[in-house]
Amino acid sequence: MSADPASRPGRLGVGVIGAGRVGAVLGSALRGAGHPVVGVSAVSDASRERAAVLLPGVPVLVVPEVVRRAELVLLAVPDDALAPLVRGLADTGAWQAGQIVVHTSGRFGAAVLAPARQAGVIPLALHPAMTFTGTSLDLARLIGCSFAVTAPSPVLPIGQALVVEIGGEPVVVGEDQRPLYHAGLAHGANHLVVLVAQAAQALRAAGVDEPGHVLRPLLEAALDGALRAEDGAGDGGTGAIAALTGPVRRGDAGTVADHVAVLSAFGATSGAVDVPAGYGALSRAAAARALGAGLVGPVAAQQVLDALAGINPHPPVLDQEEHEDRAPRPGHPDGPPGPVDDGGPPPQEDA
User: Fold this and answer.
1) In angstroms, what CA-CA distances link 222 with 126, 130, 238?
2) Considering only CA atoms, which of 139, 127, 17 is closest in space to residue 77?
3) 35 DSSP assignment
4) What is the DSSP string of 228-243?
5) Which of 3, 50, 133, 270 has the least CB density, counted as fewest CB within 10 Å?
6) Element (H, E) at 203
């Protein structure tokens, strides 16, 4: 029988700042690895409920008290709130020499923790490459999940060890590469959701009652094929584009022209002008990558591009007057962070 994780050497008292979907789950994972969670900050009712479910028995405290009690401080707050939080705690003398300070922002490396580092802390940037539901389901999904680890070389093994302890796979990402790394993840995950939404809207307009059900086997097969091709490509391989199917791969410019016509008409009548624009942009990218990978010839690729020539060549611009009264206000979920109570900044809701 395996020993109780809490009996392992090197256990650290963890303080979680931000009981959003990310912080509460990672705090629970660290607790499962034997690190006691000594405090959590939770401002909203949703955060408090999440803390109660995933971190039962852990006291909800104001941020300075969480930091005071912790040997490992987990900062799971929105990107824009991270630097001011670190600086504010430094200005009040809250950081303690020897503390491990971990943030979970994908955008930043360890440099954002410089004010805390000046106080003698160990700075780590650990970003899990997954989306979070904020429930116990995420704990199983952490197993085998890649974590970008960025830290000064002498303390890099500490970050890697923490990731391994909770079942993840550490991937070292350089400080100057964090923005590109995060942009790649956001482009893949966020825009995949947009693509599904666009495709589903077109199918629903075509009379399909359950577009998600229709799309699922097709998209799951396409995604699996692309990821397998990318994993097996090695240096110099064609990668994911090898899994491309459809009219661009076939050089079927006539079908592409038909798509341009019906999607342009659909966008005009429904107001979903992003659908033809998205189709045009991605089809052009597909043609260029297919040509570069040798999947289509130059003549076929040019014919496809010619068929796309008339599809929304200029991206739409929002009418400022029409939309300015709908701009998110501070504190709105889609707007900039607004004032918060003594519990601290809002939690990070996703990675």
Assistant:
1) 30, 19, 16
2) 17
3) P
4) HHHHTT-TT--GGGGG
5) 3
6) helix 178-205
